[in-house]
Design brief:
Blueprint lengths: L3 H12 L13 H15 L6 H7 L1 H17 L3 H15 L1 E3 L4 E2 L4 E2 L5 E3 L4 E2 L4 E2 L4 E3 L11 E2 L4 E2 L4 E3 L3 E2 L4 E2 L4 E2 L7 E4 L4 E5 L2 E2 L14 H17 L10
Parallel strand pairs: 1-4, 2-5, 3-6, 4-7, 5-8, 6-9, 7-10, 8-11, 9-12, 10-13, 12-14
Antiparallel strand pairs: 14-15, 15-16
Helix pairs in contact: 4-5
Bound molecules: coenzyme A.
Amino acid sequence: MLSINKSGTVLKHLCNKRCFFLVRGRIPLFKRIKDDIAMVFEQDPAARSSIEVFLTYSGLHAVWWHLIAHWFFNRRMYFIARSISQISRFFSGIEIHPGAKIGRRLFIDHGMGIVIGETCTIGDNVTIYQGVTLGGTGKERGKRHPDIGDNVLIAAGAKVLGNIQIGNNVNIGANSVVLKCVPDYSTVVGIPGRIVRQNGVKVKVGKSFEHTNLPDPVYEKLKELERHIEASRNGEIQDDYVI
Ligand SMILES: CC(C)(COP(=O)(O)OP(=O)(O)OC[C@H]1O[C@@H](n2cnc3c(N)ncnc32)[C@H](O)[C@@H]1OP(=O)(O)O)[C@@H](O)C(=O)NCCC(=O)NCCS
């Protein structure tokens, strides 16, 4: 049993806001709760009062429980960490492995059926809907889950699998299965996921999802213009072309 002094020290240690309940960004739990509630009001038109959000939004509860589980995980108290995570899963239907690293203002809407794997990292201002899996392919060991950037939306039922990087400001469409890296400012839909919009410009469907050779709409337009000038010089077409 801990002596009074010792338990006092432990309590002091636990309550020290510089070390307890911190994830990325070193924010104390209570400040984080306040931020998270404010974030819900920004994102969910159905939110009515702070107390309602605090008590009934299971997505928030899952994130807050995760902060505690992650704290224990980082101190190698894996059993306690895992137990907290499973209790949270029981009540929320959201399974976040205690090892996952989660940024600020993660909004899990509806929540049921979400799985977030051990080596997953999630940036700031990410929204995740029900049925999303951030998992492994089953073929990798070690780092085997995705890294999600900032300002990413992962729509209902989407699966993001493997050790891949999802850039900042990416939208992943409902029920997509994303297996390859996605650059910033892209929208990905379908199975397997393909980029349909990049930097606000629609990308032609049917192109391959090779990230070493991504479709570049501006380059394609310039090539088209070059071809037109060439054809015009050769007298093959009239000069009434509109870009
Ligand atoms: C992907 C999404 C985020 C929209 O992103 P966006 O960048 O605005 O993309 P757009 O709406 O312009 O769609 C681009 C193309 O992808 C298609 N598309 C969009 N979502 C798709 C999906 N989930 N599956 C397949 N195709 C999809 C669109 O039809 C469009 O095709 P087109 O160019 O042939 O017309 C959105 O469509 C989506 O999936 N939202 C789901 C949100 C959700 O989970 N809601 C549940 C709340 S409970």
